[in-house]
Amino acid sequence: MKKKFILVALLIAAGAVTVYRLVNQAPSESLAANERMLAILTDGGCMECHSATPKLPFYANFPVAGKLVKEDIEKGYREFDVEPMMTALKNGEKISEVDLAKVEKVIKDGTMPLAKYYLIHWGSSMTAKKTEISLDWIKNYRAQAYPNLLAAAEFANEPVRPIHDSIPVDIRKVILGDMLFHDTRLSADNTVSCATCHSLNTAGVDNKQFSVGIKEQVGGVNAPTVFNAHYNFVQFWDGRAATLAAQAGGPPLNPIEMGHKSFDDICKVLSEDKAFEKVFMEVYPEGFTEATITDAIQEFERTLITPNSRFDKYLKGDKNILTAEEINGYDLFKKYNCATCHVGENLGGQSYELMGMRADYFGDRGTEITFEDHGRNKETKTERDMHRFKVPGLRNIELTGPYYHDGTKKTLEEAVIDMAKYEVGVNLTESETADIVKFLKTLTNDNL
After folding, report:
1. What span is annotated as the signal peptide, if there is one (predicted)?
2. What's the pTM?
């Protein structure tokens, strides 16, 4: 009887292994590369948790299991919406480099799908073959969509990239934009220019918690740096401006910042300067308009890139330019998921992320929630976008404090510790914090 029981158990186990292998086969090699990746993400059940409209499994109606399922779905969607990537794969559209970095990281770490999910949904498990296919696809896709031509071969597949020394611009517009950027006539009382809050002598910021506009009025959000803003996918913390030109058109009409009633007023004031008007019309024959003024400022701001950092030189192949502690800081930066949001040339500026992913930042802050704290929700009015902000770029970060949208962190050490706590759920050691800060300081441009 005992031998029969053992035999039956072995047969069941063998059958289970066979079924497991059958349902976890990698997608056919006959499929196109994007189709194979789409199949892996679909089989992995990514859309079951990381989407606005998840397909609930049958056991979601069970009392205990259902509660856990719904908690996992809520958490998964808060952290990552995979639907844009799935849609892009289906339609042949460009995939966000943030999405690439996030998917790459969880595959490398083996953290997705969750064990409690693939133990029930056997076909969702990431086998060694699926992992190989996925990481190879991400590497090839990144090389095509986000080529890292300046980096040494060993760093070509990094989620961050060196900045080019320059980008093509119209120098005539740049000169006019520079003049307008520093022109106080863009403010109603001739006291404030763009450079007042975004000084080029202090890394493109004013180093204040909140900037001061006309009539000594104080704003409600920390001024981000103007340097490398060219690389942001949108402008402002809440993303309300799609371009640098659109961003340049905001402050002049803001009653707290520069206070003009309309661009007609600004154009009238500038037109009184006949010498400037003559020069301006040589580049813009239509003269002063909101579109021409903001276009010139945009062209100038596109030149405000900072490629000469020690980290750029390291990525380009100078292995001796960083210390062991700085290199370890970069490794920790990647280990603790910082490089899944702080990607690209500017190490950020490519996505909106929730402030307080793993802990209640605003509850712990202990001050009243302001309208600026709503983040992207200010524009979309959707619940998911509450407290979600455009990720700031990290270049020259040691010079641009105080930090966060609310300017509450005075030191880089404080900002790093809280980012790890609230976004990753990690309490950094003193040594880890020190090394990450040392790495971040390698992002400072040599000429600032």
Report:
1. 1-21
2. 0.92
